[in-house]
Design brief:
about 550 residues, mainly beta, five-stranded mixed β-sheet, about 0% helix
């Protein structure tokens, strides 16, 4: 409190000092001192002294009252406009009374009402409101019972109709394999969607002209790059478009088609333990040019050349591989199996010994789990039989080199694809062979993605055999793709006349079932068939077999 003695006076001189006291104690000096006083009534005495030493006193009463309670100030927050995004007729919002305040106390309650009906309490409540305009009143009460109110406007808008989303599928790169200058292509709009309704129509156009309708139409397109536009229309009449590029390449040089002729049985009529056979590769062909070389081999060793040749074979079963090369350097192989039977002398000598049957077991696909670059594999030749005797030896070999012996053997193989040949010999000296395919995939490094220098990368390995025999003996009855991690696939197989005999876009069918050697339910003849494989792994990389998307397979019965 500021005290004021400025009206004091001395008629014949000057006032030299001002002394302020409370209950006899000096509390301040000077004309206008500022003092701190408690709540209540105080009698303060001013004593002034002039230049002659004379004094005078006066009293002043200072009364300090306790303050009156002040009402709080309500603040219901800013106006809100929101949209009913899920189109269910209401939307949940959060009210905000955090800017309300009480200068001389605290706010003890927040009440939110619409037309006098309480809908929520608390400072930041969440409420669900129907579409439309709402005026919400906030009433706050302080710790002395005083109140204040404020209003906020909240508008819930109905959600607008949403347009569909067109998806014309992934771009496609195809090859005109038959060289006709055009190709049938299936378009795919199945990933198009409409969040709040249904798609009523699909229209596909090229250069502004509609070429097809429907979700998955098949169209014929010329060689070259085409930009096709898909327009989808939903049940509200809203539309959206998307483009897909279809690129059809002219055919590259196609591999020749090797034909080693049909399998043969020949009898050793002169009983000298061998027989001269004729090799015939005249059924081989090249769709684009000429075959410039014919090579006949046994276990990787060349025994003859030329389209027609002869070879002397011993008693037993022998598999001869014909490799043909075209003028573009591409090759193809086919196998022919010769069975040389022991002849009988005129006197009706001993009964002919029957060759054993080799069974090398099922193909296997394994993973190098410890990532040491190799894996132990169990080989099983126990299903091999000999009708008229016993099998006396089992020999397992790769590229002509023996890697194990015995009916059951364990070998350690590097990552990659291995064609292992089982040769069984019976007690009469006759032999038979069968092949098993072992694929060792590289393991994935635990801990996720690689570090940029190749560690932890999953190299994709895809394999297709070059021979199968759908004869119902439960050995190599299906031509199947050996691969893992495939996301999409389009696999086709053609006969020598270029007619499609098998097709699938089902990854599970390609890798778990395969082709059974039939077309339209009818068994197909022995011979060479061309396959074309278009696919991608889950990371988008293409599926390649020996670095290519096409090749051939030989069907034998």
């Amino acid at each position: 409190v500021e005290l004021d003695g400025s009206e004091s006076a001395d008629e014949d001189g000057t006032i030299e000092s001002y002394s302020w006291s409370l209950a006899g104690a000096v509390i301040a000096t000077g004309v206008n001192p500022v003092v701190t006083l408690p709540v209540g009534s105080q009698q303060i005495v001013l004593t002034v002294t002039d230049d002659d030493g004379l004094t005078d006193t006066d009293e002043v009463e200072i009364k300090i009252n306790e303050p009156a309670n002040q009402a709080p100030e309500a603040d219901a927050g800013n106006a809100q406009e929101v949209t009913d995004n899920d189109n269910d007729g209401q939307e949940r919002i959060e009210l905000d009374g955090s800017k309300s305040k009480d200068k001389d106390g605290t706010i003890v309650s927040y009440s939110w009402t619409i037309n006098g009906e309480e809908i929520a309490t608390g400072e930041p409540p969440a409420v669900s409101l129907s579409t439309g305009e709402h005026t919400i009143r906030l009433t706050v009460t302080d710790d002395d019972g005083l109140t204040d109110s404020d209003e906020v406007a909240v508008t819930i808008h109905e959600a607008p109709e949403k347009a569909p989303v067109a998806d014309a599928g992934e771009d496609q790169v195809l090859t005109d394999v038959d060289g006709l200058g055009e190709l049938e292509v299936e378009l795919d709009g199945s990933e198009s969607a409409d969040e709040d309704g249904t798609i009523e129509s699909y229209s596909w156009s090229l250069a502004g002209a509609v070429i097809a309708t429907g979700v998955n139409p098949v169209v014929t397109l010329p060689v070259g790059s085409q930009q096709i536009v898909l327009t989808v229309t939903d049940d509200d009449g809203l539309t959206d478009t998307d483009e897909v590029e279809i690129k059809i390449n002219e055919p590259a040089n196609q591999a020749p088609d090797a034909d080693a002729g049909g399998n043969k049985e020949v009898t050793d009529t002169d009983l000298n333990g061998s027989e001269i056979v004729t090799l015939d590769g005249s059924g081989s062909s090249d769709p684009e040019g000429n075959i410039v070389a014919y090579s006949w081999s046994i276990n990787g060793e060349e025994i003859a050349t030329g389209v027609n040749a002869t070879a002397e074979l011993g008693i037993g079963t022998t598999t001869i591989v014909l490799t043909v090369t075209d003028e573009g350097g591409l090759t193809d192989t086919d196998e022919v199996i010769f069975r040389i039977l022991e002849g009988e002398d005129e006197g009706g000598g001993e009964t002919e010994n029957i060759s054993p049957v080799a069974v090398a077991g099922n193909d296997q696909t394994l993973t190098d789990t410890d990532m040491d670059g190799k894996e132990a594999v169990s080989l099983d030749g126990s299903a091999s039989t000999d009708e008229d005797g016993t099998i006396v030896s089992y020999s397992w070999s790769v590229n002509g080199e023996e890697i194990a012996t015995g009916m059951n053997a364990t070998v350690e193989l590097d990552t990659g694809t291995h064609n292992i040949l089982l040769t069984v010999t019976d007690n009469g000296g006759l032999t038979a062979t069968d092949e098993v395919i072992i694929i060792i995939n590289e393991g994935e490094e635990t801990g996720g993605e690689g570090n940029g220098d190749g560690e932890g990368v999953d190299e994709r390995i895809a394999f297709l055999p070059n021979l199968f025999s759908p004869n119902g003996d439960q050995m190599n009855d299906y031509f199947m793709l050996h691969a893992t991690g495939i996301d999409k696939i389009h696999w086709r197989i053609y006969n020598r006349q270029g007619r499609l005999v098998y097709e699938t876009k089902d990854v599970a069918e390609a890798t778990m079932v395969g082709w059974d050697g039939r077309a339209n339910g009818e068994p197909q003849p022995e011979g060479s068939y061309v396959w074309i494989l278009e696919g991608s792994y889950e990371d988008g990389s293409p599926v390649l077999v020996n670095g290519d998307v096409k090749g051939s397979v030989t069907l034998i019965r």
